[in-house]
Structure prediction request, 351 residues.
Amino acid sequence: MTATPPTKPKRYVAAIRTKGLSIYDPVAVGDPVYWIPTPELQSLLDKGLRGLSLAGLPLRTRSKVVKTRVCEILGYPVPESFKKTQPRFPGQMFDTYTQKSNNLQVWNEELSASRRYVIIRISNADVITRVKVVTGDTLALLDTTGTLTSKYQARCIPGTQATELIAAKDTERLLPFVTPNVVLGRIATPVLHPAADEILAIDTVFKRLAALVGRQFADAGADQERNRGAALHRLVCEALGYRSYQDDGQFPDVRHQLLEVKLQTSPTIDLGLVTPESVEPLDVPMIGGQQIRHCDVRYGIFYGAATNGSVTLTHFFLTTGAVFFTRFPQFQGKVLNAKLQIPLPADFFNT
Prediction:
């Protein structure tokens, strides 16, 4: 089997320009021609916006200059005036935020799981230095202050079995595209888009990852959940058979396998802005003409004990989003703040 070629972001730009789409023309999530997936959107905007100077510009002018440049980068004609839509770029479902500090503020609206947030880092000299694109669900998981209360949660109580395969098979939509075995190290990396016949069947994923129970890794501390998660993700990528570990901070963690990985050292599972059973479309290109949904994602839940400077994996659960709540009861309630302040991690723009 040959390697899956990386997506060439500029092909989306050419298609949009040829079609003559405006930023207000709707595009279906996952459309293989016109929808720009998040990794490719980030690549285009990061390369296109870096070095742009906003020095001396009033805030409104700065916003218009950025939005104008974004249109040019993505192949869209610049509108005579930008409408006050939510989001500002509805065709590709994203908003732009320019940031000098790591305190991201979202005013007067709830974070949306499916919306993309283009976060633009500017230097003290008001020059754009980096662009990061994340979904609302990813942003929700970054909040550690408790200011963002609109997150779903569930409870994980380990049983007597060390490993549990909760879903015996993948969802009906994903099932035609899975395979019982594939040598992942030869064909792909963890952050590539999923493709037909490159996605391991859920029972194969279970067998490979269940072997991690009993493994230990150094504990970065309870206040360093991202570092704990990175250590676990490395083990997961190795167990699945990838040559290298990669994590671009997007959902799901192992995009190529539609696998979200969670480490629990306490019973409360943070799920972000969308429930696993949701039928909302997932921001990946269609597979075989089918749009993958959140409920098709596989969730690998590792339970661990943190003692003496290390984390020991004691339990492992694997399920599809569709039947997630048959094993992990959902907490009730979801509250909305009018103003959200999300502290971005110090390494946010480095991943």
